[in-house]
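In this section we walk through a basic example: taking a raw amino acid sequence and producing a predicted 3D structure, encoded as C-alpha cells. The instruction is simple. Fold the sequence below.
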Amino acid sequence: MSNETETRAYRKGDKQNHAYQYIRNAIIRNQFTANQPITEKEISTKLDGMSRTPIRDALMRLVAEGLVERIPGKGLFVAKPSITDLLEITEIRFSLETTAVKLFTERADNQIKQELKKVIELHEKYHREGNNLEAVNCDNEFHFLIAKGSMNQRLNSIISKLIEENSRCAFMTHRDSGRVETSIHEHTKIYEAIMAGDGELAAELLRNHLRNWLEYIKEMQFKNYYLFNK
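The resulting C-alpha cell sequence is shown next.
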C-alpha cells in the first residue's frame, strides 16, 4: 500500500471514529432518544457535511453494539435500552467494584484521592446549580477513578467498559434530583471510609450503593410504563 493510500485509509478511519463517537455520545446522553429515527443525512448535517460513507460505517458499528436498531423497510432507529442488560451489568459491577475499592484503599496515592474528593465537590456544585447532566458525568467519574486507583489495569479496563455501558441509563435519570442527592451522599460515605483506611467498610458501602441503584432501575421500569426493553 502506498503512503497516499495509507493516508486516505487513515483519514476515512478517523472520520468514521469521529462520527461513531458523536452518535454514540448523543445516544448515551439521550440527545438522541429511544425509537428516534436516525439518518446519514441528518448526521452529515450535524457534522458539517461529512460524507456519508464513514457515517454509514459508524452506524453499522452502533447496530452491532445494540445502540442503533435496523428495522427492515423503515430504516435505522435509536434502540431502546434493555432492562436485562442493565441488571446484568449492575450485578457484575457488585463484585468487581467492591474489589476495586478495597485495592484503591490500599494502593491509591494522595493525588488520586484528591481527585476523588474534587469529583464529589463538583457533583454537589452541579447539583446545586441544577446542571444535573454534568452531575451525572461526575457520578460516572467517581466510579472511573476508583477503578483507576485500584492500580490493576485489567480490572480498570473491565469496570470502565461496564460503566460506559451503564451510562445511558444514568443519563436517563438526570432529572431526578432525589436520585442525584442520594448518589452524592453515598459517594461521600464511600470516600470517608477510604480516607479512614477501612477498605471493608468502603466495599460494603459501595455494594449498598450499587444495590440501591439496582432497585432504582427496577422501580423506574415499572413507574415509567416499561421504560426499557426486556
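Looking at the output, two observations stand out. The first helix runs from residue 3 to 28. The radius of gyration is 20 Å. In the next section we compare this with other chains.
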